[in-house]
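Exercise: predict the fold of this chain.
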Amino acid sequence: MNVLILSRDQNPHEFKSYLTEEFPDVNFVAAREEKEAEDFIGKTDVLVVLRMSDSLLARAKNLKWIHCMITGTNYIEELPSFQARKDLILTSTRGIHGPQMSELAILLMIALNRNAHQVEVFQGFWQEKPPK
């Protein structure tokens, strides 16, 4: 199986390193730019991506699965090459941030309740005791 990890915003080589350890029988290729992936896209079975062009998708003749590293997949679904291929599976990371968002909401409620914004305002006025 050939997996292409394409991400300009994240470090695809870090993902590749981790995934290669977990799945040694899979051939992973990491790229930051589509140009780096041109030689491999025709052999790619799985594409892990944030964003991609329609021209890249059109060259992915062997592609079976696209995994989007963000929640929204509408930009992929709107690509003409995606619409023309009814055999592609499209998944996303929807739902993985639920616990973290809940924790952030609680943190912000506590911060508001304790007037945490005032701490930042007063920081400029606090003085350390001089050394003895």
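Check your answer against the key: The domain at 2-92 is CATH 3.40.50.720 (Rossmann fold).
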